[in-house]
Amino acid sequence: MRIATFNINNVNRRLANLLHWLEESEPDVVCLQELKCTDAAFPAEAIREAGYGAVWRGQKTWNGVAILARGAEPVPTRRALPGDPSDRQSRYIEAAVNGVLIASIYLPNGNPQPGPKFDYKLAWFERLIAHAAELEATGVPVVLAGDYNVAPTPLDIYETPSWDNDALVQPAPREAYRRLLEQGWTDALRTLQPETRVYTFWHYMRQRWQRNAGLRLDHLLVSRSIAPRLRAAGVDREVRGREDASDHAPVWIELAGH
Q: What residues does Mg(2+) bind to (predicted)?
């Protein structure tokens, strides 16, 4: 079972890129972030013609998350992260696919920091930690996939001081990510590539893609109940180099059968 996460950075603008990647890589499940469209504008028919059922939660202009399943219909279990009923931002959706509970996550960026956006990022992270603990406690197979907007360690960002004040690398979100892992989650890509400078995001500015000046922001965390099935993990890096590409590349894991 191949499960991927892909911050698509506007699903309608990048639809041709998405469909091309789906056809060539055939992931079983895809978590999308930054749809940047309303529910009504989500390209469900084109995705269905590509062989994928979908659940999604859109938002005009910003945010938006979805879960696609090849040859199946995801069964939605949550369309928002619990803990703050007043939060209307579309950043979390959760569904069951082929016996695995999967969440598509778009954690707040948090810039500029310090400030209210950074405070919202940390509060949202705490809500995620609380909900993840409940999911892990159930013992069911769970994958928490998405753009976490945190580079967890210095190994997850190219060597530069230019990002030192950015919310993506601050101690507080890095500590929150560490506490999330301590619940028993496995950071699949880092576990299988423990010493590699592997990136998932390259800013459009200053030829950062061409210079491989990237960050690892997109993560797939697997619960203890499913970690023994983890067989492989990687980044479809070449997708970032295509015309009119997202600034993120797809990240994927492979799980052995039951």
A: 7, 34, 147, 149, 247-248
